[in-house]
Amino acid sequence: MKIYVCVKHVPDTAAKITVVGGTGFAETCKFIVNPYDEYGVEEAVQQVKQAGSGEVIIVTVGKETALVTMRAALALGADRGILVKTDSHFLDSALTSQALQKAIEQDGSPDLIFCGKQSIDSEGMQTAFRLAKSLDMPVITDVVDLSINDGVATVERETGGGSREVIDMPLPGVIGATRGLNEPRYPKLPDILKAKKKEVKQIDIAELGLDLSSPQTEIVNLEAVPERGQARMMEGSTREMVEQLVKILKEEDKVL
């Protein structure tokens, strides 16, 4: 069984994010595997194990610095990787899906493809659908349960408001993974060391014959969210605290 997992290199939202030039992130930012993609990696590894044979291939479109993130995904149990190199962190969703399509088709015939239901940076939620369309495959997203029998994937997906539905999808197909599908493993030191030696094929996006000059969408401006001011605690009786608050509003914030 050959399973491809599309993994995005995203900034860690729990760390300080620095925006550069209004269009990208500083390389000093901490980057991680897109959390929703981790569910896809874990599920792919489990499905190959259940099948008894096969391989899990990580596919990433991004800067060469994304190699660090790919190694993290490989440490979760994937076998090898393919990096489509670009000059920008953000790539139009249409171009991203086309690049993924070309890279996968050049590598082999997939039995199943996983994507995260969305990325935590742009949150476009388009890649899985666009990729499935370009490969002429069915697609189901928000998947929280999956079983495969005789070339058919039976999936349970969230539909909103606490509701779920069960769908049978013939394979090959594209699955959009989300929280609840599994519990991604925490890589052990031996897994991390092995990941450093696993094969990662690098392809320049220009080699795929894509027209990069006319993206369907582009980032006009990107800004970091302003940091919130620190809270100030007041002490004393209710009357004293009210007096302190009024003084602050008058003298510091000048709203009274």
Structure description:
- Helix 3 crosses helix 4 (127-135).
- This protein has one domain (2-208): Rossmann fold (3-Layer(aba) Sandwich).
- It is 27% helix and 28% strand.
- The chain contains 6 helices and 13 strands.
- It has a 9-stranded mixed sheet, sandwiched between helices.
- With 256 residues, it is of the alpha/beta class.
- Name the helicity range: 25-40%
Give me the strand/helix succession: EEEEEHEHEHEHEEEEHEH
What low-confidence regions span 5 or more consecutive residues with pLDDT below 50? Answer: none
CATH class: Alpha Beta
Q: What is the CATH topology descriptor?
A: Rossmann fold
The end-to-end span amounts to 69 Å
**Strand tally, please?**
13
* Number of structural domains: 1
Biggest sheet: strands side by side, in what order?
11-10-9-12-8-1-6-7-13
